[in-house]
Write a structure and sequence with these properties.
By secondary structure, this protein is an alpha+beta fold. The chain has three domains: 89 residues, Nuclear Transport Factor 2, Chain: A, CATH 3.10.450.40; 57 residues, Nuclear Transport Factor 2, Chain: A; 60 residues, Nuclear Transport Factor 2, Chain: A, CATH 3.10.450. 24% of the residues lie in helices and 41% in strands. The chain is built from four helices and twelve strands, in the order H-H-E-E-E-E-H-E-E-E-E-H-E-E-E-E. The protein has a four-stranded antiparallel sheet with strand order 1-2-3-4, with helices on one face. The chain has a four-stranded antiparallel sheet with strand order 5-6-7-8, with helices on one face. The protein is rod-shaped, with a radius of gyration of 50 Å.
Length: 232
Amino acid sequence: MMMRKWILMTLATILLGGSVIAFLLFPRTSPEISEEQAEETVISLYGGSIEQTTASGEDYQVEFQRTDGRYLALVNRQNGQVESMKLLKKTEKAKKLTEQQAEKIALEKVEGIIGSNTYNKDRNEYTVKVEEETQVSTLVLSAATGGVLTISEEPVQVVPSEEPDLERIITRNEAIRLAKKTLSGEVQDDEFVETEDGGYYLIEIENDETDQEATIQIHAVRGDTMTVEWDN
């Protein structure tokens, strides 16, 4: 009887020892969480948007972007707990330079008047065009620091002002024809007088039938009647 009891105790000890050894050699582990679950955990805790997720050892490395910067969170692949989080890159503040300040800085660099001023939100830059008499300067300024990043210049094509075409002077016969619209008759005398705006003709006409005589001034370029002087 005692022998049987010792045998049973020995078998129980062997079974218990085998179970302990099996547990130590082959521990039961909980299933790993997925990348998507790790990302959901990070966003629910910190907000923002996921940039990328990679598996590294026992953790998921989750990079995510918030308004104040880019962060890295380490999520345990077994229990889904966030073990650490650190800032990778801080987001620069949005523009602090006003439109008027940008124009003032531009005029300190280049003389002239402001032609246009545009703001690029993505680059946080102002592009200011300053107009001068002979050229247009384009300045790109950092809205964060107020520094001038680039200056480029473009010449202005000057269009010459139109001057009277002094060569297009009407002929003597054309002037007489125009003068006869005022008084028809026989030409007694004609004279061309040169002036800065092209000159004029003085046509003296006499009409025996009506007993009228006049000196008519015809513009040599425009061809219009300037004055009429009647002789009584």
